[in-house]
Amino acid sequence: MYKCTVCNYLNAEGEAPQKCPKCGAPQEKFEKLAKEHADKITRSRHSNYLLKDLITSMETINDIAEQGIDDDLDPGCRKLFTEAKESAEFLRQTALAEIENHIGKGKWG
Ligand SMILES: [Zn+2]
After folding, report:
1. Is the same domain home to 93 and 49?
2. Where are the beta strands (DSSP E) in the chain?
3. CA–centroid distance, residue 11 to ligand 1 (Å)
4. For residue 16, how far is its CA from the centre of ligand 1 (angstroms)?
5. 48-68, pLDDT tens digit by residue?
6. CB neighbours of 42 closer than 8 A, spacing ≥ 6?
7. Residue 101 and residue 61 in one domain
C-alpha cells in the first residue's frame, strides 16, 4: 500500500503510480506503508464502511418514524415511532462520532 504524501491518496494495490491520480504529484512523493499500518487501514476502512451503512439505515428508520408520527393513529403508535426516531438519531450521531474518531487517529487511510 502506497500513500501520496501530498494529498493522502492511497494506492491499495500494486506499486506506487507514476503520477498521483488525485493531485498529480510524481511517483517519488508516494511512501510505502509498513504492512502493520496498511493492515490497520484495511480493517478500519471495513469498519468505517459498516458504520456508513448503519448511518444510512438509521436515516431510513428516521424517515419511517416520521411517517408514523405524522400518521398519529393512536398514542401507542405515536410513542413507538417517537422512540424509534430518538433511538435512530442517537445511533446515527454515535456512528458519526466514531468515524470522526477513526479519522483523527489516522485510521481512515
Ligand atoms: Zn496526491
Report:
1. yes
2. 2-4, 10-11, 30-32
3. 10
4. 11
5. 999 999 999 999 999 999 999
6. 1, 12
7. yes
